[in-house]
From TrEMBL:
One of its GO terms (cellular component) is mitochondrion. One of its GO terms (molecular function) is NAD+ binding. It holds the Pfam family SIR2. This is DHS-like NAD/FAD-binding domain-containing protein. It is found in: Mitochondrion. Keywords: Metal-binding, Mitochondrion, NAD, Transferase, Zinc. Zn(2+) binds at residues 175, 178, 200, 203. The active site is at residue 167. Its main location: mitochondrion.
């Protein structure tokens, strides 16, 4: 049986309200949460639903008036068989990437990041190719930083990857010949916009090196967007399978599925596999005292506007009907109320460990600190301790874009805030999420 909870109606329904609150507490108590997401979590970011978007198709249609490609055809591997459909695909992707580039992560993306910061996220798996998890600070499986090269073969470093991009990443390109994997540079995007494929720089340099020693030149591959099409295998499929198996063996204690209609075969399998092991983590006898004490363990939560099919009975425990952003907001609000100690986090920004964040923080908060430093001209700022004090509401308003380094978020909050006047003391930053607690310099320190 799937329990359905209507988010909008829960205000007037005490039973639903209590159940939702107990689920929020379960999230707060869980230790190894697997999150699975789809397009629904990026809707509020202004990313068009590209599989059915009229706007993008209209643009593509202008450039290719005779096109009949639509919907699934535009994402089917067979499109590469025909040069015209290949061109249309490239143009479409360039348009899509441009609208993704200006988008910011949603509250749901930040919520997943929060789970990770609070050491509760076992792993996030997404069908989305927009890379907004990375913008929210979760390291994705397509990033170069998480691949180690063993015998020339890229391999994902399990611990570093926080978000598995099941369908690839629109911000990267791949060579069709040598499989070189590169960021999608502006020049490539320009060519894609005109329906053209850029030459692979790695193939080109190998070929040129041969020419230089009078050997026969090699074939040069072209670059394509590194997203996974229908009927196409993921180039990192083996690694992803291994990570998935590893995560199953870690015995996750909660599964949260958000913003997906669960239609894609591979994703259905993944959800079922995780649901099974999550359910197995619940105490076997639900009436025992031990089970009563651990009743937060082993829940499978599905947050989506539309209900799951009846074939999900026994797999999904709760369907939370509504926007994922609204639920994420509610969970975090409940969590802060129920377990305030979880939110008293201290972070140290160290110049050595995180130079850029430190510098940016110094620039913003510096306006206030400069007052203190001007009284001590011989001192140089070395280390700042900042304390998170915010409530979600304040935090979300100023949290439009969130680069991955710790502290940077706080800087962004402060930098954007009209409530942060030029001459404010550093402690004013507390209004916007973070409070500067102390500034340290060799032999001296100040507390705020
Ligand atoms: Zn190549």
């Amino acid at each position: 049986m799937i329990t359905t909870l209507d988010l909008a109606a829960s205000l007037s329904d005490p039973v639903a309200r209590r159940t939702l609150a107990s689920l929020s507490l379960s999230v707060a108590k869980s230790k190894r949460i697997v999150v699975v997401t789809g397009a629904g979590i990026s809707c509020s970011c202004g990313i068009p639903d590209f599989r059915s978007s009229d706007g993008l198709y209209a643009l593509v249609k202008k450039q290719y008036p005779d096109t009949i490609l639509k919907g699934r055809d535009l994402f089917d591997a067979s499109l590469f068989r025909d040069p015209t459909s290949t061109s249309i695909f490239y143009t479409f992707i360039s348009q899509l990437k441009q609208s993704i580039d200006v988008a910011s992560p949603s509250r749901t993306h930040h919520f997943i990041r929060t789970l990770d910061e609070k050491k509760k996220l076992l792993r996030s798996y997404t069908q989305n190719i927009d890379g907004l998890e990375e913008k929210a600070g979760l390291i994705g499986s397509s990033g170069q930083g998480v691949k180690s090269n063993e015998k020339g073969k890229a391999k994902l470093r399990v611990k570093d990857v926080r978000n598995i991009q099941l369908h690839g990443d629109i911000h990267r390109v791949r060579c069709t010949l040598c499989s070189a994997d590169l960021p999608c540079a502006e020049e490539y995007l320009q060519l894609f916009a005109d329906g053209l494929a850029p030459d692979c720089p790695e193939c080109t340099s190998r070929s040129e090196a041969r020419l230089a020693r009078s050997a026969r030149p090699l074939r040069i591959g072209t670059l394509r967007p590194a997203i996974v099409l229908y009927d196409e295998a993921h180039p990192l499929g083996d690694d992803i399978g291994a990570i998935q198996a590893f995560d199953v063996s870690r015995k996750p204690d909660m599964l949260i599925i958000m913003g997906t209609s669960l239609k894609v075969h591979g994703l259905r399998r993944l959800v079922k596999e995780f649901a099974k092991v999550v359910h197995a983590s619940a105490p076997p006898d639900p009436m025992s005292t031990k089970a009563q004490a651990k009743n937060w363990v082993g829940k499978v939560i599905f947050v989506n506007k539309t209900p799951p099919g009846s074939d999900w009975n026994g797999i999904i425990d709760y369907h939370i009907e509504g926007e994922t952003d609204v639920w994420a907001y509610k969970v975090e609000e409940d969590w802060r109320k129920m377990r305030p100690s979880d939110w008293e986090v201290q972070q140290t920004l160290d110049e050595k460990d995180d130079g850029s964040a430190f510098k940016a923080m110094k620039d913003v908060v510096g306006k206030g600190i400069r007052k203190y430093l001007s009284l001590h001209p011989s001192l140089r700022l070395k280390r700042m301790l900042i304390v998170e004090t915010c409530r979600w509401q304040t935090y979300s308003v100023w949290n439009g874009e969130c680069p991955p380094s710790p502290g940077y978020r706080a800087i962004h909050c402060a930098a954007q805030s009209p409530l942060f006047p030029d001459e404010a003391a550093p402690v004013d930053v507390a209004l916007h999420g973070w409070r500067l607690q102390s500034v340290e310099e060799a032999g001296s320190s100040w507390d705020f």
